[in-house]
TrEMBL record:
Short name of any one Pfam family annotated for the protein: NUDIX
Protein name: Diadenosine hexaphosphate hydrolase
Organism: Sphingomonas mucosissima
EC code: 3.6.1.61
Record-linked SUPFAM superfamilies: Nudix
CDD domains (alphabetical): NUDIX_Hydrolase
This protein's encoding gene: ndx1
Length: 156
């Protein structure tokens, strides 16, 4: 017998590139997602699914430009994670996330490249100081963002 256990829906595989986007003051960019259903808003780093035939680094470069208007080389992977979650489109996925850190001088965001879905659910963004992250009243993903930033600081 193959597939998911009885009564359990199989999760879709989702390769994804995520970006730790850090400005010269050490702040990290997060987008606020408002799913619009029974789920509360949450904050997350830029990034998204890898398109067919695309490498993780290519996806990171594309997602960075589409979501922020910033053209930059994502550099090497700094972390890899496997996480399960429900997408905004309500699809259960198991994501193979590859993380990249991009340091930038300016902290301006141009949302011109946002998709229709992103325009609907990512209406806010801000640069977070590290001391704000642990005490923020809404959920921030990944939950160990501060540790990831600290682990990559020496490479910046």
């Amino acid at each position: 017998m193959t597939g998911a256990p009885a009564g359990r829906i199989a999760r879709a595989a989702r390769p994804a590139a995520r970006i730790l986007l850090v400005d010269r003051a050490g702040q990290v960019l997060l987008f606020r997602f408002t799913p619009g259903d029974d789920r509360p808003p949450f904050w997350c780093t830029p990034g998204g699914a890898v398109d067919p035939g695309e490498s993780y680094a290519e996806a990171a470069r594309r997602e960075l430009f589409e979501e922020t208007g910033i053209r930059a080389d994502p550099g090497p992977e700094v972390a890899q994670r496997h996480v399960e979650f429900l997408t905004i489109e309500r699809v259960e996925v198991t994501a193979d996330e590859r993380w990249f850190r991009v340091d930038v001088e300016a902290n301006e965001v141009d949302p011109a490249g946002h998709t229709e879905l992103e325009r609907r659910v990512m209406t806010e963004w801000r640069w977070f100081r590290r001391d704000e992250i642990a005490q923020w009243p809404e959920t921030i993903y990944p939950d160990d963002l501060l540790a990831m930033l600290e682990a990559t600081d020496h490479d910046a």
